[in-house]
Amino acid sequence: MHVVILGANGQLGSLLVRSVPHSVKVSAYTSSVLDISNSASVARVLNKVKPDLVINAAAYTAVDKAETEQDKAFAVNHAGVINLIENTGPQTGIIHVSTDFVFDGNANTPYLPDSPVNPVGIYGASKLKGEQALTALAPDRSWIIRTAWLYAAEGKNFFNTMLHLMGTREQLGVVADQKGTPTSAHTLARVIWMFAEKQPGYGIYHWTDQGEASWFDFACEIQKQGLEASLLDKGIPIKPLSTADYPTPAKRPSYSVLDKSSTRVAIGYQGRPWQEELQEVINIKSEQAASKES
Ligand SMILES: NC(=O)c1ccc[n+]([C@@H]2O[C@H](COP(=O)([O-])OP(=O)(O)OC[C@H]3O[C@@H](n4cnc5c(N)ncnc54)[C@H](OP(=O)(O)O)[C@@H]3O)[C@@H](O)[C@H]2O)c1
C-alpha cells in the first residue's frame, strides 16, 4: 500500500511519519512542498504519485487567529479538502483528521459521531466544511476521525507550554470549566495506522484517550507526573480559573468529550485512560532530556 501523508511537519503528521508500519510505502509532504489550498500544487503531486490512501494531517489550526484570518482557515480546511478529493481517483481512500470544535459544547454526555454539529468559532466552522465536503463528494472512500486536545512530547502544545511555565513561574492559573479529554498524538498516530490497515466502514469516527478532564485537571496531572519524573524541580500553586477569567479571541466548546465506542469496535482497540497516556509521553520527554544531556 502506498500512502501519502500531508502536513508531515505538524504535531500529528510528524508522528505518523515516524510510526509507518513495515508493509506501507509512504510519501510525506510538508506545506512548503504541497500546499493543500493550492489546487495546482495538489494536482502536481497526487496525479504523479497516485497513492492508494491519503492521510490528511494538514490543517489551519490557529484557533484564535482564525477569527481574524477567516479566508486562510477556510482555504486550508475547506478548499484544501476539496482539492484533495478532486485530485484523487475513486480508488484512493482518504483518512481526514477533524476536531471536537465542530460541536458547540452544550451537551453533558459524550458526543456521538452523528450528534448535531454547531461550531462556535471560525476554526470549527472551517473544519466542519471540510468534513461536509468529504461526506458529500467522497462518502464511499473516506474516513473522518475527529479528535481533541492533542499533545505530544515535541511541538507547541498545552503539555509543553505547561512544563515550561511550571519551570519558570511562581504560580499559574488554568481554566477549570472547559471539559474534554487530553489525547496523546503518539497514540492517535498508531490509531490512524490501524484504520489504514483494517479499513473499516467509511464515515465519521471519534478518537481521544479515555476519560475526561478540565484544562486545570490536565495541568495538575502534568505537574504531578513531571515532578515524579524529575522534569520539574519544584511544584508551584495552580489556581483554577473560569473561562470568563481568561478571555480568548475564539469561543471554545465548554464540553467536548467524544464517544469512541464505534471506533473501538471498528479497529478492535480500546485505548487507555488519559493519565496513563500522559505517563507514556512524560517517559518519552524524559528520554529526550536524558539523551540531550549525554
Ligand atoms: N492540536 C489539537 O489539539 C487538535 C485537536 C483536535 C483536532 N485536531 C486536528 O488534528 C490535525 C492535526 O493537528 P496538529 O495538532 O498536528 O496541527 P499542527 O501541528 O498545527 O499541524 C498542522 C500541519 O498542517 C500544515 N499545513 C498548514 N497549512 C497547510 C497547507 N496549506 N498545505 C499543507 N499543509 C499545511 C502545517 O504546516 P506548517 O508547519 O508549514 O504550517 C502543519 O505542519 C488537524 O486536522 C487538526 O485540525 C488538532
> Regions with pLDDT < 50 over 5+ consecutive residues?
none
Largest sheet: 6 strands, parallel
**What structural class should be given to the helix and strand makeup?**
alpha/beta
Q: Give the H and E element order.
A: EHEHEHEHEEHEEEHEEHEHH
Approximate shape = globular
Instruction: Tell me the distance between the termini.
Output: 39 Å
Q: In the CATH hierarchy, what is the class of the domain at 2-148 and 184-209 and 256-273?
A: Alpha Beta
User: Helix coverage percent of residues?
Assistant: 40-55%
The CATH topology of the domain at 2-148 and 184-209 and 256-273 corresponds to Rossmann fold
User: How many beta-strand elements?
Assistant: 12
> What compounds sit in this structure?
NADP nicotinamide-adenine-dinucleotide phosphate
Name of the CATH homologous superfamily of the domain at 2-148 and 184-209 and 256-273: NAD(P)-binding Rossmann-like Domain
Query: How much strand content do the residues show?
Result: 15-25%
Mean pLDDT, as a whole number?
A: 97
Treating each run of at least 4 consecutive H or I residues as one helix, how many helices? 9
**Order of the strands making up the biggest sheet:** 2-1-3-4-5-10
Label the CATH architecture of the domain at 2-148 and 184-209 and 256-273.
3-Layer(aba) Sandwich
- Supply Rg: 19 Å
